[in-house]
Every structure is written in C-alpha cells, then in structure tokens.
Amino acid sequence: MKNLFIILVVVLSAISANAQELPQPLKDVNQDDLGVVSDKFQEYFFEALKQKGIENYEKAITALEKCLTLQDNKGIVYFELGKNYRELQQFDKSTEYLQKAHEVSPDKESILVYLFQTYGMIENYAGAIATIKKLIPFDQSYREDLANLYLLNGDYDLALKLLDELDEQLGANSYRNSLRRQIYARTNNTDAQINNLQESISNNPEEEQNYLNLIYIYSEQGDDEEAFRVAKELLETNPGSFLAHLALYKFYLDKGDPGEAIASMKIVFESEEIDAESKFKVLNDFLNFVQENPEYEEELIEVAGKLSEWENAPELYEQLGQYYLKKDNREDALTFFELGLKENPDNFELLKNTLLLQLEYRKFESAVELSKNALEIFPSQPMLYLFQAVALNQLSSFEAAEKSLKEGLDYLIDDTRMEMDFYSQLVICYNGMNNALKAEEYRQKAENLKKEIN
C-alpha cells in the first residue's frame, strides 16, 4: 500500500537557464511530460525548477507564471504551481492549481497523489476522499487508504463496509484489523456491534472475519468466556480455519492448557494466511510462557527451528535472540541474531548485539566482516570502528586496527568511556607494532580518562 501522507521533497540540482540544449530532466519532471514547447518556455520552466530546488518558491512561482503566458503545456505548469504553493503553505492556492492540473491531465496518477496528500495535510478529509476515489482505478490498494479516510472523517459505517469487502477479497490483515478496532473504540456502541456481528454470523457462518471481530469485542469488554466460546464456534463451523487458532492459543494459555495452546501456536506459524506481525505477537506470548514454564523449552526450540520454513521475518529471529540472551544462553542468542541480520542487515541494535557476542565467542573473522559491512551502512558510528578494531587486534592485524580506531575517533563525541576503550585498543595496536612510545602515550591517555570516570 502506498504511504500517501509522506511528503516527498525532491532535491533539485542547479542548472543553467540559458543552456541551448534541454538539460537532463530533474527527477520530478520527465522530458516526455514537457512535450513540444518553445525555447522560451523551457527557459522559464527550468528556471522555476532551479529556484524550487534552492527553496526560492516565490521566484519559482514567478517563473511559472511567465510560462502560463506562453500557452505551452499548462498542465505541467499548474502541477508545479501547486507544489510550490504547498511549500509556502498556501494550501488553497495549492489545491486550486492541482485541481487545474488534474483537469488538463486526468490520466496522471502523480497529480492526484499530490492533491490527496495536500488535502490530508489540512485535514480536508472530504476532499481527500473525493480524490482517492479517482485514484482507485489506477491501483486497487488505494481502497485501504479510503477506509482510513472514512474513519478519519467519521464515516464509520462506510469504513466498516469497505473493510469487510477488502477482507473478503484479500483476506484479513493487521492494518485493517487495527482500523476496525479504532472504529469500535470511537463509536463505543458495542451492543449494536455485537448484535450486528451475531446476525452476520447467522446469515453467513462461513465468513471468518465476523467471528474474529466478535471475539475482539468480547475480549475488549473482558468477557473472555464469551470470546472463547465464539473462537470454538468458529473452529466448529470452519474446521480448517487458521484464524481461529490466532484467538484460541491465548485462551488456552490463560486457562492453563499449554498442550492445546502450543498446538494452536504451531498452526498459526504454519499458516500462509496469517501475516508476519501476528505471528510475531504469538511468538512473543510463547516466549513469555516458556520463561515461566521452562519445561516447554523443547517445544519452543522445535518452533524456532522451523521459522525459516514458515516465515521470512527477521523480527522473529531477533526476538528469539533476546529471549536466549535473557536466559544467559548467549551462544544460541548469537545464532538467532546472525540469522536475523541475514534478512535485516541495517538493524543497528541487532548489529551491535551480534558483534558483541561474536567478540565474546572469539568469532573474530566474522566480526571483522560484519563490522566492515555495517560501516558501509553506518559510516559515522564510532562503536562499529571500535568493534572492528578489537577483532583486528585479536587477529594481530595491528595496522588495520590502528586505521579503524583513528577513523572512529573522528566520529566520537562526548563519550568518555568509549574514548577510553579506543585508547586501550590503540595501546594493543602499538604494542603489537613494537612502538613502545606510542603505546605508552595512549596508555597514559586511557589512565587519565579512567580517573575522570571514577
């Protein structure tokens, strides 16, 4: 689904307004969009882009107004005017020109997206709804955005109807369930919702979402017995339902029936219908349960061993790693952290935990390789340079360690303890390179910082 409320700011590079050839089109304007236009139009238009790129929006607007006098390609000029007025927070003018751009170029999805975003910024949900309905023929995923807008606009019945249609066509997901829960919370009319859902179940007993919505409402009211009854009814009516087990496992845990709970959990993990976020929540409950009931740890290990088959979700590996870390089973924690990094290499916290454990378990070659890759993503993180240097020192690569430490010190700001660690590693470097004077210099610096800390 498109993140339409994210405002895209395109950084434009300066260009020469007097160039004889048309400059390389800037990223938010395609050459084909201009069509056949006069040289004067090109001059004014690209001057406008240059001024917008350096945030001189008033001057950009002046140049665009000159374009309008030339009668060339008004659609793209209107579009640019709408963008510049939005940057100046003159939203009425922005929407006016974006609407004009749409009238001239009704087949341009990007214009409607920009208009939709602008309405969202000023909380004009009626305008946003009208616009997104025009976007749906371009991409059906906009229907989820429409459901969200109905919620924001207070059109709760329309929102629920659309959410039900989407669930029926695409299957349930956590985002739409979240919207549905927000509607229930806002309307605070649980009796009507319960009656409506019970009637829907009677009329269409094979529709699973109605059971799940009813389970949610009962759970929110604290009526766990009724929620449990509905979950079992769902399973009886739909014996092959995976979603029923998404509700049942929790009830079984609360009722002290771990065997049934674990069986339901396994079904949830094996299901292709259930999204990764929901599985993650189930796993978290499983981990908490095993912490209090360690006799079921083998069951957890069995589930963990099949995760790569069931779901490609790095959060699952990270959560398992944290679980074993809390149990001080650090070697297993490292195994799961490394699996998580294969899928999510730019998770800094996961990188840090993995490197610490690699150093602890003397996997120095792995630590050097991992820190090298991590620095390509986080080149200004001094901790990564330090970890790399520790591993290099242990491998007697003293010159490489020195280089890493000197680079890392350039990024270190107001962290006395880490600075002391850098100096301590430099002592090891210079001792390894038989440079006693340098080693003593940094040993003294480390000692001085240690006194400051103490």
Could you characterize the architecture of this molecule?
This protein has helices at 31-34, 39-53, 57-68, 74-87, 91-104, 109-121, 125-135, 142-152, 156-170, 174-187, 190-203, 208-220, 224-237, 243-254, 258-270, 276-292, 297-305, 307-310, 314-326, 330-343, 348-360, 364-377, 382-394, 398-411, 416-432, 436-453. With 454 residues, it is an all-alpha fold. Among the domains are: 1-122, Serine Threonine Protein Phosphatase 5, Tetratricopeptide repeat (Alpha Horseshoe), CATH 1.25.40.10; 242-344, Serine Threonine Protein Phosphatase 5, Tetratricopeptide repeat (Alpha Horseshoe), CATH 1.25.40; 371-454, Serine Threonine Protein Phosphatase 5, Tetratricopeptide repeat, CATH 1.25.40. Helix 13 runs antiparallel to helix 14. The protein is flat, with a radius of gyration of 30 Å. Mean pLDDT is 82; it is low at 1-32.
Q: How many whole angstroms does the radius of gyration measure?
A: 30 Å
What about the largest sheet? none
Strand pairing plus helix content: what structural class? Answer: mainly alpha
Strand content: under 5%
Q: What distance lies between the first and last C-alpha atoms, to the nearest angstrom?
A: 53 Å
Task: Note the total helix count.
Answer: 26
CATH topology of the domain at 1-122: Serine Threonine Protein Phosphatase 5, Tetratricopeptide repeat
Average predicted confidence as pLDDT: 82
In total, the number of strands is 0
Share of helix among residues? over 70%
Find the CATH superfamily of the domain at 1-122: Tetratricopeptide repeat domain
SSE order, one letter for each helix or strand:
HHHHHHHHHHHHHHHHHHHHHHHHHH
Shape: flat
CATH architecture of the domain at 1-122, please?
Alpha Horseshoe
Low-confidence stretches: 1-32
CATH class of the domain at 1-122: Mainly Alpha
